Amino acid sequence: MGTFKAFLKRKDIEISVKRYLVDALGAMAQGLFCSLLVGTIINTVGQQFHIPFLSQTIATIGAGDKQIAYTVGGLASAMSGPAMAVAIGYALHCPPLVLFSLATVGFSANALGGAGGPLAVLLIAIVAAELGKAVSKETRIDILVTPLVTIFSGIIVSALCAPAIGKAASSVGQIIMWATELQPFLMGIVVSVIIGIALTLPISSAAICAALSLTGLAGGAAVAGCCANMVGFAVLSFRENRWGGLVSQGLGTSMLQMGNIVRNPRIWLPAILTSAITGPLATCVFRLEMNGAPVSSGMGTCGLVGQIGVWTGWVSPSAEALANGAAAITPGAMDWLGLLLICFVLPGVLCWAFGLLFRKSGWINEGDLTLS
What we know:
Blueprint: H1 2-10, H2 17-48, H3 52-55, E1 59-61, E2 68-70, H4 72-78, H5 80-91, H6 96-113, H7 117-135, H8 142-180, H9 184-200, H10 205-212, H11 216-236, H12 238-250, H13 258-263, H14 269-285, H15 305-315, H16 319-323, H17 333-361
Antiparallel strand pairs: 1-2
């Protein structure tokens, strides 16, 4: 046992909650931000401001009916799996050959993981990275052995585990579908809280909403939950992270706080409580519906995709929304007021107020929300 511990220490393999659920998870969130979320922001800017370079196709992959067109933002988003895996490898102090090989591992895990893609990348990249580190520089043909072990172990584990992880993440959607059958008040609470939590966890809330074709009032509640987490954390952590944190969380992702949540889960309570309030307000008071593309229900304020989805749903409902009985409307003052309050004002005010209470009670301490 002593020899094995010495080997792990020599290889810098530290099996601990901090290494895997704080360092690796925090780095993964940054990788996701620098790929999928920045890509989403680029696409949104290009489409809304009609900037040709950002909205036109610059690359086409495939042939015939299987062609996939990519914009600048689309290319960035497509690299989310590799970006997350490499970020995890960086946090685990991987040597170069392991770090570079993780790009393939991240791509396979994310592609096979479906709605649970980010979670699959986290778990599988950790396994592949540690195995790669274990064999690194142990042979004279390290340049072959290390990449082969890292890539093959990652792809094998992806094939075995990633689909199951995706299925488990999709099961969250079944709870949401059950919630949509409840009366609007309870549905607003359940959907808002669950989608808000999914947004911050390393699973894809957008993929869940897209898979369920979540539109209408349920889509509005989902938008409320996402905004409660994104805007909520941005305002809640302003004293620690200032303007950089406000932008990266408010327009990027609240997943950046996952490392801190693992350290102190109570920092999540202000956002969760806020979502439990704004959800039913969205469904019962403002009747806020998200009838744009279902994927927008799970995006929140990331690149303002959620809000743009609400607006496009007003003027030109998506096919999924039309199938559910939606119709184009001319938004009135109450519609705009609801969008403003549910997406921006109430998440900021309520989360700040809850945070102030928890800071005074000692549940949240100075530095608990600091982003690395």
